């Protein structure tokens, strides 16, 4: 992809997530999760399934006392506030391209007296300039890697992680059979990639420790997101925010069908820095 197309896509994504954040803030729900959740039984509240996904990812990371961990694409920061309450790490550094989400995450961390432990940067995951080489002990990426320029991201993650450090992703991509079509597809699809191409792209730096398919646990929340967005549409003012909200319903519906027919996969991936 050329540099201009990359910049345009990043601009669009930051506008989208600024809009999603603004909508939640207008409802008094600035601290919220933006993932599809991990559902294991009927009738679980959507918010609880979303927290469960965060829990699965941090459990797989297993941070310890003294660890410095990274969270890329941290949404409103809700997952890091949760992690700070449930895990005993020294410091968490977040990277996000949505200025509004960074602002909210910093505000809540300061309000809770956690701003010494949780630090949030308005910088892309592909360029964690705030971090020195091999300076971090772990990294999480929850439902955001499909937006990344993956080859650049894997290389940058490998730069900042020390050897043996874990990187855990709740990740969405296309199935291997679609590789030829996706390679010549439009930029957002190319960024999602296929499992085969993504694995080839991370393997120079990372050993795959676990690759667990979680389509069935994430599909219900993906579909419920469509319903929730449509139900709330009347509460979103007409204008650019509403346009992004409608787009979210459309994309989630397509994703939901993709997960059902397994053209799209949702995986919990545990990698180890070589
Ligand atoms: C689907 S949301 C997931 C948010 C959060 N991890 C969660 O599960 O609630 C995707 C997040 O990735 C962020 N994002 C997208 N592209 C990014 C990039 N290149 N670098 C850092 N963050 C990015 C968005 O701003 C948004 O916060």
From TrEMBL:
Listed GO biological process terms: methylation
The keyword Transferase belongs to this UniProt entry's keyword annotation: yes
Alphabetized UniProt keyword annotations: Methyltransferase, Transferase
A Pfam family the protein falls into: Methyltransf_11
E.C. no: 2.1.1.254
EC supergroup of this enzyme: transferase
InterPro entries in alphabetical order: Erg6_SMT_methyltransf, Methyltransf_11, SAM-dependent_MTases_sf
Domain Methyltransferase type: from-to ranges: 70-168
RNA-binding among keywords: no
GO molecular function (one): erythromycin 3''-o-methyltransferase activity
Descriptive protein name: Erythromycin 3''-O-methyltransferase
Organism (species): Enhygromyxa salina
